[in-house]
Amino acid sequence: MTTPPSESGRENHLEAQVKDKVRRYYRAVTDDYLRYYATDWHQHMHYGFERDLPRGGNPTENLVRYLAEKAALKSGEVLLDSGCGVGGSSIWLAKKKGLRCYGLNLMAFQAALAKNFAGAGEARFLAGDFMRPPFKEGRFDAVWAIESFDHAPDKAAWFRIMAGKLKPGGRIAIADGFRCEGDMAAGQEKAYRQFLKGWAVPHLCTPKELQAYAEAAGLERFWEEDITSDVLPHAFAIYRFAFFFVPIRWLLRRLRLLSEEKLLNATATWHQYRTLKRRLWTYRIAVFKKPG
Prior knowledge:
Low-confidence stretches: 1-8
Distance between the termini: 52 Å
Order of helices and strands: HHHEHEHEEHEHHEHHE
């Protein structure tokens, strides 16, 4: 007689599936980011923020600046970059704000790229799972997550884990997408799912769920803001790539000359803007503080 899997067993299986998809996604598309996001120059792999952007400024770097301001980050503080990509945030925060940053990345090769981009300095990078961070409790003044929180299969657990790593008075700073309340029409739901699938995101939580997860982890709201209108211009810039990449990559995939992940990534560039513009989801920043 087969014993049914336990609840924790099912959760672990789901977590493993999500991580496998994330690994396959970034293994396939990091070169796209390096080439088309010019990350060899600025090392950021996320949306840009257009508000108060100076002429010739970098919108992705501008988002880092704005979130750092709202999180009240100060020189000398120790920060955990939970899902650091190729190191953009940590490198900028170390150089511009004087923080001591530790970037954690599921992908060892991305952590190696981040180390190379950073050179000598106060930003350090290591490979590891942000659901099992290899740091002692109460180590950090801040936890940082730009478009990495969305990859967490259990977002409530992510908050509990990260809250445990904070010192009293520490902050968690998030910039990410959040699903809007209410049901979607069938066509809208399909487009929304294609957007998430293309970027290896298991699901987005709603702002209300985000608040509930933070409160359950013993955190207080410090700052929260819908910045969708400031992100839309950059979302549109990404969307324009789809007009060229989707048909070309569809053909290459048919010829078995391209991975499925690269095709799905291109498809997501199409759906992300259209679903964001229709406000099926919003882009927000949120900062939570640990009492003490």
